[in-house]
Amino acid sequence: MIAMAAQAYDFWDGSSVPVSRKVTLNPDQVLTRGLARMIFDHPQEPDRLIKVVDPDGTDARRAQKRNRPAIMLYGAFASWQREVSEYCRIMNRMGQLPDFIAGYHGFVMTNLGVGLVVERIGDADGQLAPSIDTVVATNGHNLDLRSMIGAFFSDLTMSGGVASDLNPRNLVVACRQGKPGLVLVDGLGDRVILPIRAHSAFFRERWLRQAEIKLCRELGLQD
Question: How far apart are the two ends of the chain, measured CA to CA in Å?
Fold first, then answer.
């Protein structure tokens, strides 16, 4: 069977992973490091990033405890399962890709473990888009951030989507088709065992209103 596969696909090396899907990442070239993941430029796709589980991060530590059904099923990848599932739910409701959420492009095997391939969100200069708290710290409130926040929460509300973590580090100030706006790059989906917000517009919209107020307060953008 392997010999037949090798004849059909010249990238097959006889192992369990096709060579074309193996990516080598340099641990010293981490773009950013969160509480659970390390993020790298995709060495073969300049418009994409690769997220890998940080062995010392929160997802890896939760996986060792195995104290929740999702952790028992998906281990350190439970957060990815939650995010991709919510992304699919939003696509089903909208009938299109949500441009206010970074896109997902599948999985890839790396020398640091399985990687999640995501869209690389850029700013007006083509550089990696900065988080909204970085923009405030660097430029103050020079941009119309309040209207961007309002537009983002309006889009998320209309999509029926749920995000478990809408802190300023997970929202970047992007430039899409020449227009500035916020894009969610992490924290999609609901962490709770009973996803009430996913099934109840009342609870979901009430929570989103509270999340918007909290975000504005953190950034000093109170109305």
Answer: 66
Asked if 134 contacts 125 with a C-beta cutoff of 8 angstroms, the reply is no
Distance separating alpha carbons of residues 49 and 43, to the nearest angstrom: 9
| Location of structure tokens 């059909």 | 8
For residue 91, the model assigns a pLDDT of: 95
Residue 81 is encoded by which pair of tokens? 């399962």
pLDDT tens sequence across 100-143: 999 999 999 999 999 999 999 999 898 999 999 999 998 887 77
Burial class (CB in 10 A: 0-12, 13-18, 19+), 189: buried
Q: At what angle do helices 145-159 and 78-94 cross, to 10 degrees?
A: 80
Q: Which residues of 54-93 are buried (b: 16+ CB within 10 A; e: fewer)?
A: beebebbebbeeeeeeebeebbbbbbbebbbebbebbeee
Q: In the structure, what pLDDT confidence band is assigned to residue 98 with cuts at 50, 70 and 90?
A: very high
User: What's residue 162's pLDDT?
Assistant: 94
Tokens (6 digits) for 89: 């739910």
**Secondary structure E strands in 54-141:** 104-110, 113-119
Residue 101 in tokens: 């959420």
Across residues 36-64, what is the average pLDDT? 84
Compute the distance between CA of residue 20 and CA of residue 182 in angstroms, rounded to an integer. Answer: 33
Rounded to whole angstroms, the Cα distance separating 108 from 6 reads 20
